[in-house]
Amino acid sequence: MLAVENLEVVYEDVILVLKGISLSVPEGSIVALLGANGAGKTTVLRAITGLLDIHRGEIRKGKVTLDDKEIHHLDAPKTVAAGVGQVMEGRRILTELSVEENLRVGAHTAARGTVQDNLDRVFTTFPVLADRRRSVAGYLSGGEQQMLAIGRALMAEPRYLLLDEPSLGLAPLIVQQIRDLIVEINEQGTSVLLVEQNANMALSIASHGYIMETGKIVMDKPAAVLRDDEDVREFYLGLREEGAASFRDVKHYKRRKRWLS
Amino acid sequence: MEALIAVLIRGLGVGSTYALLAVGFVIIYRATDVVNFAQPALMILGAYYTSLYVFNVGMPFPVAVIAAMITMAVISALTERIALRPMVGEPPFAAAMVTFGVFVVLFILAFRLIGTNVIVVGDPWGLERIDLFGIRVNQIDLAKIVISMIAIAVVGVFLKRSRVGLAMRATALDQEVALAQGVNVGRMFGLSWAISGALAALSGMLIGTAAGGVTPLVAFVALKALPVIILGGLDSIQGSVYAGLIIGVAESLTRAYSSTYFPWVGSNFDIVVPYAIMILVLMIRPYGLFGTPEVQRV
What we know:
The complex is a heterodimer of chains A (261) and B (298). Chain A is of the alpha/beta class and 261 residues long. Chain A is built from ten helices and ten strands. In chain A, a hairpin with a 2-residue loop joins strand 9 and strand 10. Chain A is globular. In chain B, helix 1 packs across helix 9. Chain B has a single domain, classed as ABC transporter involved in vitamin B12 uptake, BtuC. The N and C termini of chain B lie far apart (51 Å). Chain B is mostly helical.
């Protein structure tokens, strides 16, 4: 189990971004972390994977544990070696390298003997990449780049995979495809923490969901419950009760979002 | 005709030492975005250590060259650790100024070590000439070409094929991504400085084979690596090689023929030529002949 407990993170010594976050990803599950821009979702991932210090962030309180061992003081390479992989927001592939070279970079911490097996595994999961293994990664389409970014993280054989907005900027059909691939990866034995703004997609495959707002977890329920929750439907899924169709009635600003009641 | 070929070969010889220096610049620039102005001082210290190992320690010449390369790799990596690592995250311009400070320190150190002496590196080539397809050429020029090209090829293959080389290229492209894949970025910085230091030592040795020996002031020859990297493109190793050879040949041709064809430019115009080429390149193609345009989907 990958768990975050009472995590407080401060950027530049003054900006309190996470105000005591707790969440957990049980082994073998898909957990969704939802929230609007600036809620602190990416910061949670950075805190887990040791990428905070290069953004001048610092963990002030709390801890991150992997199977009850604390990992928040490890640097990024050690976290990867411990079995936590991350796919960063915006794909971030190495544009000037070939597809295969990108994947090999992902295998940097893996044992040398496993590289070929993992390459084959990734190419089986993402046949598109196999077709284009020699082409320059920067010329792939957005969806292919996202698959490459996920495949690259898989090369290190992570037990826990953190995905930061894999649906960002992709066409709905491609989002479907990515969603199915995440399920497939999960079935192969990798637990997934899925950070998303596309709540619809995330809640459709997750078993549990957390909703973040301005540095706090405001809701923490099984995904099925969240999908049916009235407030979540309105604020995150864009659905509302039938009947109130007129835009005159949509006075968003008048209604305070109060989750904790 | 024979004279022309001899001039060309001399130019290629000098040019390949420029290429060697330029590759050192490029490796550090690609990994850390910093232009390393300390490179000339590293070069002259490399010549000093080669000389020291040959004459004071008594090593055979090839062993001494490798020992000097290792020494400079270590000095260079330490420099990165002490002076440049704290600058990670600062603007590259500030870091480049730090390397200039490092240059001054190392240069003064070289002056202390060498003094006003002229050092010779004890190379086996001297002024010997050999026949190459009926043309008499200096052995030293051939040695420069062959050794430089082998060294650059080894570095190129290392970057292209090995796991660490791939990690270095990944670091050069996106440090955060490299970090997230488990690459120890700090170690890659140190490694790029070490490689660069070793290449500087090798080029120092090659320049130190000059007939009259070298003094610390020869460090300024290394400034010719600047026109080379600008002509070749700051981020291209291949470009450095071609540009180094072009600059070397241009210089050598000017030295040989300017007094015959352009007497009005006066003597020693060859010293100006690399910089004239640099200005021309900056006006026409500021990213250099081989600078890779950014890959972008449209």
